[in-house]
Amino acid sequence: MDCIFCKIANGEVPGEFLYRDAKVFAVKDINPQAPIHYLVMPIEHIPSVADLAPERLPIVAELMRVANHLAEKEGISKRGYRLVINCRREGGQAVPHLHMHLLGGRALLGKLG
Length: 113
Ligand code: AMP
Ligand code: ZN
Hints:
The chain is an alpha+beta fold. It has helices at residues 4-9, 58-73; strands at residues 19-20, 24-28, 36-42, 81-84, 100-104.
């Protein structure tokens, strides 16, 4: 499948894994918008949150668990951070493989959108 995040997950494209388990992995965003900008995503190719069947929703909790863990590890947990999931075209999703952005390390005071 021609998906950049699947290719990173399966090693076809090299990536530095910040976290990896049987279901979820995390990498640095190549175009960081904050001092900490990580992408946390399922290994399985799920195009977007809108494509999640109700019984697969627990994967989103897994993404949040890993994002919280990485925020703690990077020392930004107390100061705060932002978790974002863009969905499809008008939601600003550029890569159609479900992923959660973890942003932090500076004040993110902008309004949404
Ligand atoms: P979204 O707009 O929510 O789909 O976010 C896609 C994100 O993926 C953007 O912030 C990109 O900078 C990032 N990105 C695209 N290609 C790569 C890559 N090969 N490795 C890491 N991050 C990437
Ligand atoms: Zn994919």
